[in-house]
Predict the structure of AAA+ ATPase domain-containing protein.
Amino acid sequence: RILDDVIPPSDIGVTFDDIGALENVKDTLNELVMLPLQRPELFCKSQLTKPWKGILLFGPPGTGKTMLAKAVATKAGANFINISMSSITSKLFGEGEKYVKAVFSLASKIAPCVVFVDKVDSLLGRRENSGEHEAARKIKNEFMVNWDGLRTKDSERVMILAATNRPFDLDEAVIRRLPRRLMVNLPDAPNRAKILKVILAKEDLAQDVDLDSVASMTNGYSGSDLKNLCVTAAYRPIREIVEKEKKELAAASADGRSPPTPYSSADIR
Ligand code: ATP
């Protein structure tokens, strides 16, 4: 069952080129994750460069945290396992602890491996926040114990990447295990333009589309909001063409003419 949750690097399907803007975070991830996963021997000489076993990506929803984790795993040629409290509890009622233990043991066997903990606040949040459930407490303890065990030679090329929109809900013990924290913030206008360019890179845009002006009109939009905006815009010509077809069909049948040939994708502008 756990093997189904492992995504091999060739199937992850996200690269740094698919992510617009966020250059600093990409560079930092390259240094903190990609190199240690690929060449751990470079980092083991000195106590000061021992690879970080936990990196936190925090910031508003839809800003690209999951994409970044996937892209760095792709670049490192690492397997990717995505776990979250909701996936653990929905799939494995009552067996969460065993699952967590198995994930860590599998991650070492299939290293290099990135274990991505999405919404880490719900898996490893502060106890007082949730009137914590016994099962959740056990899962959390299991996670922490195994996390601390990632110091052996076998687990050298296993890295925990955690993401949250609520960094202040993490408890001290978790924060301590995530000494490197990278903020993934909402993009400003120039970065929104970069993200739009990436999202639309393979699209056939009209000559007069001005992405800088779209970027300047979308203050407060996340990368995910920009993607949704583009999807909505891409649906419009389809809707228009279907409306046009309906009108032409109605006119043809009113005049007793044979129905017009439907439009094709080549007619979508
Ligand atoms: P959440 O905090 O809600 O889990 P997230 O920060 O992990 O969100 P992602 O899941 O990585 O965000 O991004 C959601 C979608 O938004 C992506 O699949 C992608 O389509 C788009 N997106 C977000 N940021 C970018 C970006 N910088 N460049 C290109 N697309 C982006």
